[in-house]
């Protein structure tokens, strides 16, 4: 039924399954090896749940050394490996094939070192994003990238996907906040890249690893920057009668020299659903809502809110509200952060993740509406407006195979539109299997070949997460 | 005599590099030639981006700018200043330190991943770089990233190209995200602290929410006491507030003088460009990156063994150090001191003889070096781009 192809398993590997399991059993403790079908089934998909394959086996190592041994062995055996954090990838990045071993880092979840003097923290890769902040918040620090999935998703997954979040407008995404990693290459070699100091010598290998979607090596540890918590932060809500007004307002705020910590956008359907879920007081009679958060001291917050309110006045805002309490702020963010979940209660959807130049906001929204109309599907738009990262949710009925197919094609058209408008296919969720075949739309053969050569140089047999990121055909020799 | 090639277009660069790859004859890659850093490149021909100039995209309200690689940095900065914007990372102007008169280009700045004092707050050049076009050693032009703030489509060659010193490709166009110029800035100045106390003060300042965008320590010299300086930038009222709070919190370290906008700008430019170590012109200069808390120990070792003069930036995490020009230019001492704590050292200034005789960049662990070698081989299989530089 589904349109995205997952390659057929290699019968040779399936036939050797017992020997492979025996080999793995010699390398990790029994509690770290999952072989029963029922238990393996828990690893058959990620948050792109329309696609599932039960892996050959699941290994959950406890140490870098075990990861190294497992990879050395699987490399010798020619067995594919799919790294896994918490499995929240929306792009199908952690979905296995039946002839692949899933290597999960969930047992590697220790905080190794907290160093507030140098503003760093060293963690095992399976620590959750929120777990990092949790380890330092009592010391007045936090870890900046904040994907909405932060309660569950791991630092490993964040690094692989270069994840972002609502507050990335000011603080950057994962790649701007990682200082070093310990990574195991497919041949078992363990590398330390970067460290607690700021500059890494030689090529920026760290920059290459971040965002490489588990295709170049398995990350087992990371050194991250931590930042002092702001004195205070406050969100405000602004409603608008049109997407154009909201978009122009965002541009005017940024042009004025203010970089808020977050500017989030929701359209009418999203507002309705999120308000029903979080009771945050979102205005319901508007076409577009901006959540703008500023931070600093009480006086600074007032000053910034004053400036923003004044700028906004040119764009006919309605339902302007400034949070009056911690509880209200929490509710406002709860609505936004649970938007995907709340929408999921109403309908099945696929969540797209294109990025556009912010000046194209109204053009893209008009285009998205036209595309969805054309397919007869409903859409709801939620996005990080400050940096042009869109999340259109294309709604469909998952029990209807035709609708799923339509929704996927509709999503593709939306992403192509983003590229046409000067943007890109994915701003934070990654390519995975989902956008693999669209890569030729954004990149030409020369671009893609060079990326694939790097893959080949570091993983000559293409065993690490092989059917992701690049179109299945056209792998260069 | 080397010949200089002056392509006007990407297509011409492709043709030059392609031919060079075919004939396996190396090319030296030049922007403005203002930062002759790194190993000596042996090449009979130089490819200069001098004629590859021009801003190709500037959207002030989107905080984004693209330019062809040979565009003089001065032009970029004038254009940004006219719109009250700036490059966030405060790239160093090496011309004083290195004593040359080139015209710095945005491509050269990118290839050297230049960043100054604001690095601790706003990141390095690589953090603001969002898109590149580059001609690889195969004579093919690739693109990575784009003009949008967030992009995780495919491998991030943008970061890989920043700081690759022209050994992976000839950058033809770069795109940066920008920041608004600030309304004002203030510097708090504390005199007479030892390096240890200075780092403690700077560390304490950076643990506050008051957004310190510069933290440096200039040791005592020529009869003047040491100076420890902290910069705060932003809107007027906010700077006033944060300055006062910081002064209060850091009282245990002594009392502060305050430098206003003009004086502060002059001071931070001199720190950025390492003016304190400009003379004597023949001394070797090292740029050392360590954890801030390790800074004083490394600095003390260099002072004791080499008589180094020092400048601490990045709250102690970046040490600029002079060393005698003769012998190994202090390499053995510097590498041992850095090796003891973890970090890295780059020989920024040294005679060609010195740069030919000691590793200019920090030697990498064998496995990391192997990974770099494999990556370089995919971009430049014939090894013709700036061979010997890194
Ligand atoms: C409700 C919801 C909201 C979300 N919101 C956001 C958001 O705001 N911003 C955002 O950026 N993303 C968001 N996501 C997407 C997702 O949470 C992120 O991509 C996240 O980083 C994935 O982390 P994970 O630990 O779940 O990784 P997984 O899903 O397990 O894996 C993701 C990728 O990382 C690779 N990987 C895992 N472990 C390793 C390792 N040790 N070494 C190398 N590669 C590895 C996998 O192979 C896979 O390619 C959201 C997802 C959901 C379900
Ligand atoms: C008015 C003014 C203000 C300045 N302000 C700052 C400032 O605020 N911050 C700052 O850092 N600097 C500043 N500078 C200096 C400037 O950033 C750098 O010195 C300059 O950008 C280096 O470029 P270059 O072209 O001279 O590099 P070169 O010395 O020519 O090259 C440096 C390295 O990069 C390589 N390279 C050069 N071009 C390319 C290319 N296109 N592709 C691949 N590799 C290449 C070379 O091979 C070499 O390895 C300023 C300069 C001026 C004139």
Q: Taking Cα atoms only, what radius of gyration of chain B do you get, to the nearest Å?
A: 21 Å
Alpha-beta classification of chain A = alpha+beta
Give the helix tally of chain B. Answer: 14
**Which shape of chain A, going by the Cα principal axes?**
globular
SS class of chain B: alpha+beta
What's the helical proportion of residues of chain A? 25-40%
Sheet-strand content of chain A, in percent, reads 15-25%
Give the mean pLDDT of chain B: 94
What this model shows, in words?
- The complex is a heterodimer of chains A (about 475) and B (about 400).
- Helices cover about 35% and strands about 20% of the residues of chain A.
- Chain A has about 475 residues and is an alpha+beta fold.
- Chain A has a seven-stranded antiparallel beta sheet with strand order 15-12-14-13-17-18-16, with helices on both faces. A five-stranded antiparallel beta sheet of chain A has the order 5-6-10-8-9.
- Chain B is globular and about 65 Å long.
- With about 400 residues, chain B is an alpha+beta fold.
- The chains are: A alpha+beta (about 475), B alpha+beta (about 400).
- At the A-B interface, strand 9, helix 8, helix 9, helix 11 and helix 17 of A face strand 8, helix 7, strand 10, helix 9 and strand 18 of B.
- One flavin-adenine dinucleotide binds next to strand 2, helix 2, helix 4 and strand 9 of chain B.
- The site of one flavin-adenine dinucleotide (FAD) has 34 residues of chain B, from strand 2, helix 2, helix 4 and strand 9.
